[in-house]
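Continuing the batch. This is chain 6 of the set; chains 1 through 5 are on the previous pages. Same settings as before, nothing changed between runs. Recording input and output for traceability.
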Amino acid sequence: MLSYWERVSFVSYDLIIVGSGIVGLSTAIKYKKKHPNATIAILERGVFPSGASTKNAGFACFGSISELDDDLKECSEDELVTLTDKRYRGIRELRKLLGDDALQFEPVGGYELGFDQSACDRIEFYNNLLDKVFPSAPFSEVTKDLKNYPFSKKVTHLIKHQFEGTIHTGKMMGSLIDLALELGIRVYTGCEVTQMESDTYPIRVHTVSNKQTVEFRATRVALCTNAFTSLLLPELDLKPGRGQVLITKPIPNLHLKGSFHYHRGYHYFRTIDNRILLGGGRQLDKTGETSLAFEPNDTILDQLKEDLQRLILPGIEISIESNWSGIMAFGKSKNPIVKKASENVFVAARLGGMGVAIGAGVADDLVGLLETQ
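Output for chain 6:
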């Protein structure tokens, strides 16, 4: 039972945002800057953001050539250009919001490992297709540089995307949280939303925290929980996609820098603190990885470990320090969902595994929608 003080001071807001990931925090910050008198609270089910915002690999990426080829099987060229533009705009929004130092953004480029010539043959096509998205041609073949990398000889071609880079995921999320608190936004963690009464005014948002139920009230609610949004709005075209990630112990004399992709973007790795961070492989068991449960998938993890030892750093002694999983959201379209779900309830979800790149841009779109409704 709530005290008088709790009822008058902590449960009623102009805007409640469900989810404290990149989209939720960015939306709250952007809205608060435009409406400084608005009272805003963020409700987060986990101790940390529970989907993928604190569990991703820290890639500022927009799609490798083989991944874009896959996308073109499901969408038109115009749709692909629009989607890529959203990704590139999103990372610029994030950098503008926090600054490169807070993100530890490094413009190291993105490299696609090729096992044949096919992706290289598409460089000119995509440079022409995306000429209005990027300041200059994004892709170039740098196969001649393979001699500088320790990869297996199975890697026969290398393509660089000059505008991709890496960030420090922990510093990014910490900076977003610090900025939200500095602006007077309330952030409640360990607070799971179990039900919404959206036909009432104000909207009643039922939560549970440490076995205590609390009913929050808000003039408007924005759902920014990506795959977990399906628990509150099951009618949306949302399917979870779990991603497995592992990280090595520090590797002496590791001379490798950049962000790397292979197998149509499903596999990816980078360096961080003299370690290799490697993730992906969802295509090896899409059924098993269509899950909201944070669990390891040994089949995929075994393949990632084999790739690490045989493909990425052959002949180098490697020890795995830890592994984890994050949960993304996908659907029939790779375009994010930003819409009004019902009277005074809004949603931003389905980031298609590109949350770092697209998240702040999606938040910008959501704020625009909130302001026009």
